[in-house]
Amino acid sequence: MKCFGRKLFFGFLVLVFGLGVSMVQARTLDEIIKAGEIRVGINPTFPPLGLFNDKMEIDGFDKELATEIAKKLGVKLKVVKVGSPDRIPFVAADKIDFVMGAMTRTSARAKIIDFTIPVHTEVMGVLTTEKIPYKDYKDFDREDITFVQVRGTTPVPFIEKNLPKAKVLLLDNYPDVIRAIAQGRGDAVVDVIDFMWKSTQTHKQVKWRVVETPVNVYFCCLGVHKGNYTLRDWLNVAIYDLHRNGAIDAIWEKWFGGPMIYKIRWTEWF
Amino acid sequence: MEYTLQFGQVLKYVPYLIAGAWLSLQIAFLAFCGGMVIGLLGAMGKIFGGRIVRSVVGVYVTFFTNTPQLSQIYFLFFALPEAGILLTPYEAVLIGMTLNAGAYLTEIQRAGFISVHRAELEAAETMGMSLLQSVWYVILPHIIKVLFPPLSNLYIIMTLGTSMAAIFGVEELTGRALNVNAITFRSIEIFSVTAGLYLLVTVVASTVLVLLGRWLFHVKGKVF
Q1: Which of A12, A74, A168, B33 makes the best surface tag, with the fewest CB within 10 Å?
Q2: To the nearest 5 percent, what fractions of chain B are helix, strand and coil?
Q3: What is the pTM of this model?
């Protein structure tokens, strides 16, 4: 027992300090160009930003934008599947060069990763069914209301802070969230309405409703490894170009079926 | 650009994580107990039952030991509501894990049953014992020493397997670790702490099982 305990203790030390010493180095812009490939994290359970197409390949707004970025850099695109809870760890561990999937720019996240200039916005609101009569998101702060949310996403702390009386059921992905509400496990979801809408089409028997008052507008960027300024600075210029020549708007309209609700006001100063 | 480990940010969440670990243990314990009852009935059905009973138990065991537990719980959680049965996340996970454990425990207990000498069973029959009395007074005391180690192992595996409950919204240890990760983004630190807690939980559970085994069934077991 004593011997095992000692081995366990030293094993743990080796694990922790081993990780600390050999901690990952993000690839610089030069290294990415030299490798001829850029690795981009996309969440395929987040339609229409990311989804699986008929060939079961990752597709969507993010994939198309990433393709444009890779083309500008002159390298091949390697799409890496990420999920909502693990997308930031993927960047931090240098499994990918940057992450997409509506990376909302927050000061908390900015302690761990760096953000580029905004790519698109997301208008956060409440999606519910016609069974729930409330017209303002603040009306949902009730004990008999259950929000169904994706674990690890921005709205979860928002609900905990602003709607503390409501219950929260955390699931793994957006299709499951919508299914859970359709089946009556919960009453509503706070998230980006544009992204939610596609998933609701699977449950057409449910009378879906968007609460009139929006919650907030967030700015979504690309997330890069903390301190990888060579890549971040290049991506900023590329995103500016793609805003200026209308490419981002065109890709958005193709996948979302309409213009961005709150447009990015791009500027030549960034 | 090197990442700096900062355990200070996650250590304040340890009490929150311990509450999750307690829930993990609770789910594993209840599912194991339920699985033992199902397993006992299944083993009896397989050995002493008629053709139909044996077939039903065989289909049950084949299905639950050859499909992923995740799919089974997914079915309970998302498919049953379409038939009007709405289980809470906790209920769905508990029932799913119990049914899964029951299948494995049927096979484990069946193996124990057939290790009992035929003569002992015949002696019980001669004494006028019913099937249930034979199982309770003759078979179980005999096989428990043989079965205790694999049963303990299964219990530990089940405790670790509770981590999948997070997918269905049960706030057990892994679910809570993911929540803390979503706040702090310190994934290496939080999952190192979580791994440590799982280790602690399984070591404590193993110790309790060894002590129980020694006390109740005189089984000589070691934690390490």
Answers
A1: A74
A2: 85, 0, 15
A3: 0.71
